[in-house]
Task: structure prediction
Amino acid sequence: MKRLCCLLFGLLGPVQALTPSLDAPGIVTHGPRTVREVALTFDADMTPGMEGELRRGQVGSFYNAGVVQALESTHTPATFFLTGMWAQVYPQQARALARHPGFEIENHSFDHPGFSQPCYGLKAVARSDKAADIERAQAAIREATGANPRYFRFPGGCASESDVHLAEAQGLQVIHWDVVGGDVNQPDPARIVRQVLDRVQPGSIVVLHVSGGHAPATGLALPAIISGLKARGYSFVTVRELLGPPATAHR
Result:
């Protein structure tokens, strides 16, 4: 049930009113609009409910290997925002992502709670526990991968200004997106392709997922997304490459 909240990435309209702003002060949503560069980012979500589905055999995997295969076969750099729980469940895959020269690893909380409520059905986290969740994720990701994230993405994009300050106090810059891939629970790769190609601008940060369970269409959509954007003159970079020094980042 918790995972269904993430349908927000494929929905528009009234459901948007259920969540706080995606761009509270301090949140970066895109890079410079002056260069035709795009950062493809992939969230690796994991909640206690998702972990339970795995244990019960209701889902075969929350790691979509097709995403990584599509990126590698096209030599496309990418940024992965891992939850700490996902890194613990899939340490071998997390380590392989971190060792890949074209990928970067960042922080997506420990177990994907909604820091600011309401947040599409995501569980709430007490204010007194928020900083600990971010720190616990940082430690879990570092232990699994050896990487030291410097960016943080709030689950569901739900964050208040005070939440942003908590992440910044731990030395993390908050990164969201300006293009929603709409891939969660979406079985049709063509719809994912259209949603991305219709919305990308110079400097865009695209949010997709590597934690596809029931509908792993993202890997099937990626070759068309990559070729379509290349045909329009775009090149691909990691978030760190897109933003450069902090002064060049844009909200």
